[in-house]
## 1
Amino acid sequence: MIHYLSPSILNSNFLDLRSTIEMLNQSDAEWIHLDIMDGHFVPNLTFGPPIVQMIASVARKPLDVHLMIEDPDRYVDAFIDAGASILTVHYEACTHLHRTLTHIKSRGIKAGVAINPHTPIGVLEEILPYTDLVLNMTVNPGFGGQQFIESSLSKIQKLKLLIDKTGSSALIEVDGGVDADNLKILLQSGVNVAVIGSAIFQSENPAATIRMLKSIMQSFSTKA
């Protein structure tokens, strides 16, 4: 089974962002996760395409861009042009989700769909053939450092069953409250991609923490 680590820079030091990206370039992590928030869809603001473009100019790993914004269709092309390799939009924010996902894929990058904790898995059944990954939010989106919602485990298990049932190749990604304590059970539930922010960037040595998290993932891959 494929496993990727996608560190979220949301809780990194934005005064020294270049050093953060260089550290991630040299780390064992496969992707770099960028949280885009507009202050409307979620109660927080982060950054837009110009910052993504600056990050892309120094990043040597795929940019996993998560749009937590209203009316994402207005900005999809701007983020793709800025350097996104994976672009994820929210089920709850898209009026015509099929159109949005197929447009993203037509631009030559991976398309993802995210769902909030309260959104049932079943709403995704018809869209799974058109998405490359499903991002299951395991906290209410908007802020880093929140506690993992335990009921998310059953949702992930249901999603894995739905993916198997439909023959989809979509990856399962999780974001929110993920750390070394719950990573293994998430992998056992079928998770392919772990977005981890606070557990990495609030540790004393983020690079060493990434190595430790990847060792958990690699150990699980060996056993799986």
## 2
Amino acid sequence: MLVDSHCHLDFPEFDGRLPELRAAMAVNGVTHALCISTTIAGFSKVRALAEQHDNFWCSVGVHPDTEGAEEVTQAELVALASAEKVAAIGETGLDYFRLKGDLEWQRERFRRHIRAAREVGKPLVIHTRAAPEDTLRLMREEGAAEVGGVMHCFTESLEVARAAIDMGFFISFSGIVTFKNAAALKEVARALPLDRILVETDSPYLAPVPHRGKLNQPALVKHVAEEVARLRGDSFENICCATSKNFFRLFRLTPSGVMQIR
């Protein structure tokens, strides 16, 4: 069993290709996936993917760098997140890499997502890029530790990872950990406790070696798991087992597709 904890199967790159993607998952032992929301306008498509397939779940949220996107209130997030196949709030967080200037709107959006997660009692899927201090600060100020979650596609320092883990969060590695120039991230993957690690594709982006530069898909998460195993001197099978167990524990899910009541 292997789980892709973060993918975007609703994106246009995958239109008409779902049977092919699911077949490739089966061949490569990828049994489950979490389909991530980035806009409210696109949420219905993400939710439909989860509702039509027992081994898919979804999240609801507005990506931090989607400037000008339809904003969503805390109450609206709570209502949308109450559906059975919605496992998390997000993708949310802060991104100071792509956008510059006054980003207070981004911080306020992040705060609303954290508050909604606390209200509905579901974990957060957090994106942070070039904003580690503010991300951790807002997480602390808004009580993100109450629900926990995952720092997805992690590229920050070991210090940031440990601070997030101290708040009950998991750290998810994407194909970036397979890149030759990701020496610092490889050290993070070696150092973290195994019971706090997830793996993901972030597909259609960030295809892992040996597929770098190509269209990514959930089946390729096995290469991420293989690299994490190599870095830690562990077996591929143990990494698959541990990261899958971590996924179901974090999102309070069962492999049958049922969400456990908190």
## 3
Amino acid sequence: MDIALLAGLGLAIAAIAMGLMSSGGDIGTFIDIPSLLITVVGSLGSTIASQPKEVGFKIIQIMLGVLKTPKLDFIGMIRTLVSFSEKARREGLLSLEENLEELEDPFLKKALQLVVDGTDPEVLKNMLYTEMEIFEDNLNAQRALLEAGGAYAPAFGMIGTLVGLISMLKSLNDPSSLGPSMAVALITTLYGSILANVFYLPMADKLKSRAAKQVQLKRMILEGVLSIQAGENPRILEEKLKSFLPEADRATYEKEAQEATA
């Protein structure tokens, strides 16, 4: 699970809950079922309608998926690629076939299978680039879905508010009902803002940052596999792959490499 996302959502929800309770002490004042239906169900429906069906109908699955942290081990991947490079230089590219079943990363597994099968380097590069683009497009479609939800939720909050105001104006002859009616009318705006700024938009931003790292890992794998296929020196390959690491991870990798050598 993504601890940062869960902690952030929990903190935001707790802050809102404490604010609501401190404003009057009665949390029930802020619960209105018709307003929830208009805001939650209405924005959900428009969000699904705005996207392709293969994405829109998976909105709940996508939101739950955002809560899970994908396994991205850049340092471990460099070690794996360098070890495969050393083995390929010693025993030949075909020797890598016996390691394919041990691989958990499907992109790396497919890339090495293509190498073992003797695929032309240019063809291999084009095939893997195409797969990377499809992967990135899929993540962008998921992010667009959540961003759409972030846009529709406040809009439906305003729709609910307008509905409440119309009902309030119809009962102007009863001054005692104006206050409660106005409060109910504004609740939908509150619900829309909470949906957008606590759930939809933070999840969309999380997908955006996560997608960048996932694509970067795939680029590193592609670079490593092409170098293995070309028979480059493992040390040169290692230096090339280290350029994909952030500063802190690079320092960690070099420190661990020095300790292993010592």
## 4
Amino acid sequence: MDNVIGLEIIEVVEQAAIASARWMGKGDKHMADQVAVDAMRNRLNQIHMRGRIVIGEGERDEAPMLYIGEEVGICTRPDAAQYCNPEELIEIDIAVDPCEGTNLCAYGQPGSMAVLAISEKGGLFAAPDFYMKKLAAPPAAKGKVDIRNSATENLKILSECLDRAIDELVVVVMKRDRHNDLIQEIRDAGARVQLITDGDVSAALSCAFSGTNIHALMGIGAAPEGVISAAAMRALGGHFQGQLVYDPAVVMTKEWANRTREGNLEELKRAGITDPDKVYEAEELASGETVLFAACGITPGMLMKGVRFFKGGARTQSLVISTQSKTARFVDTIHMFDKQLKSLQLY
């Protein structure tokens, strides 16, 4: 799977990023997301595969494209028999976020990117549209920190694993009212806090790379993005754990103002989740034998530059990670829109 579609998924995230970047700074997060969805879906449908969206833009009645359960790829076409040999057919599950950090893109802030993760059929956890408590940490701390510990305990363990004083550690936390106590605990323990408004996939990913000065991600974010983060962290050997959150009093969002704890538990039960308090390891959220992750910067971020337009083209920077080849590749691409373009502007 890595050899067959590894390069093509880079083009999928590149096309989504370029489309969304045209709306960067225009204040319209919905349009920034919609054009990314269109571009990503169009490119996915050009790949020789049968793909199924397990994490996408929502249920079918809420999202006309890249909805959960939608099939994409050449081998899903009515005339697929002309192109696809059943004995060689690649069936994969796909988790997508065409514009991760829509607000970041809309307001020209750093950290927005187009991301996806793929695995063989059944290899990605079909996370419900719930919230998830998350803990990400560098490979050196894998299996040593634990989401069931207090933040203070994990910071002490992280300090030992990385051979750093606690006051040298930086923890990324989303700026939400629900995290006020967590932020205070981290600060009281002596560590530093980097607050973000959106985009915790990028924050989790940064934990796995030395030199980013990001040493942990803590707090509650969206569960679907947790699966995408887990796919990347599994491939990189980093630590990631997630635990679904179903109590509106804990989440503290307007979106859940009319929901109840009991109602959410019933919804999880209907989704086949019998243990709502289960702690999921990265290997459970992304359990496939082969897992690929790809991202392309829309706006500049910790690991990748954003899309840069020039006369007749654009330049992108992407990252593709594979459990099969055990590689993390940074890809710098010049896209030539103008066929008459005579020189590449390398800046």
